[in-house]
Amino acid sequence: MGRPKIPRKSTAIDMTAMCDVAFLLLSFFILTTKFKPAEAIAVSTPSSVASKVAPDKDVVLVTIDPTGKVFLSMGDDKRDLAKKEALADAIMKTKGITFDKQKFAKAHFWGCSFSQLPSYLSIPEENRKGNALAGIPADSTKGGNEFAEWMTFIKTVYMGDKMNLLLKGDNAAKYPAFKSVIDAFKKNDLMKFQMVTNPESIPTGTELWRKSIKGEKRDD
Predict the structure, then answer these.
(1) Neighbouring residues of 136: CB distance < 8 A, sequence distance ≥ 6
(2) Which is nearest to 195 in space by CA: 185, 209, 206?
(3) How far is the C-alpha of 171 from the C-alpha of 152, rounded, in Å?
(4) How far is CA 189 from the centre of its chain?
(5) For a FRET experiment, which of 146, 147, 165, 173 has its CA 20 to 30 Å from that of 189?
(6) Residue 199, helix vs strand vs coil
(7) Residue 203: pLDDT above 80?
(8) Given a cut of 90, is residue 18 above it in pLDDT?
(9) Cα–Cα distance measured from residue 56 to residue 73, given in angstroms and rounded to the nearest whole number
(10) Mean pLDDT of all residues in 164-188
């Protein structure tokens, strides 16, 4: 007697639970993701073949826009906020001016003279655009290099702690603007800093390219 044939049924997997989990995760990431806001200071950095990644902690960033205006910024974590508040105290005590220390610490960047800080901080954050600001005076021939004083205050605030000094200059900025910033660094014995550039591939056939092929260590 032959064996009865059992009809075969295709395998069915209920994907409802998995879809629910996927949509829950997607909703979570959408709601918690912080998108990078548009930069208030438009800068087009020059290209380079440097492979070293700029640090993202204990950073003091100096930015030079296309017209040569100088801006200064620090990080936004708890340690940075504490240093910003200490910087505000030092400026108010030394310069004899008064401004909102909390607004100063929460500012993403500074771009004015010391005397203009109270009015600068009264401007809503979203309206602080580099092209509408005067920048920090950095030309010794035009009222003094206040930027050098800013760096003196910052150096004092970071005394005993590591400071990663970065310089980000626009490709169209003129040499005098860079010289004024470098002079301020030298005046404060800040001889070590990194340039922020736009990375590109190493040109084929160059000495640097041959070293990378051989796996030799680069000095950026």
Answers:
(1) 69, 70, 71, 72, 110, 111, 112, 113, 146, 147, 150
(2) 185
(3) 27
(4) 22
(5) 173
(6) strand
(7) no
(8) no
(9) 12
(10) 91
Range of the domain at 189: 57-199
Contacts of 37 (CB under 8 A, 6+ apart): none
List of residues 6+ apart from 130 with CB closer than 8 A: 40, 41, 42, 63, 65, 69, 71, 111
- Asked if the structure places residue 127 within a domain, the reply is yes
Contact 184, 79 (CB under 8 A): no
**CA–CA distance from 6 to each of 3, 9, 88 (Å)?**
9, 9, 83
Quick one: angle between helices 78-95 and 146-157, nearest 10?
130
Q: Quote the CA–CA distance of 20 and 17 in Å, as a whole number.
A: 5
Total of domains in the chain = 1
Give the separation between CA 173 and CA 67, rounded to whole angstroms: 6
Q: Would residue 178 count as lying in a domain? A: yes
Instruction: Calculate helix-pair angle for 175-187, 146-157, nearest 10 degrees.
Output: 40
If you search the block for the tokens 């030298």, which residue do you land on? 186
Q: Do residues 156 and 67 lie in contact, with contact meaning Cβ atoms separated by under 8 Å?
A: no
What whole-number percentage of the chain has pLDDT above 70?
Answer: 74
Q: DSSP strand E in 12-114: where?
A: 47-48, 59-64, 70-74
pLDDT digit string, tens, across residues 47-66: 766 666 777 788 999 999 99
- 152 belongs to a structural domain: yes
Residue 34 within any structural domain of the chain = no
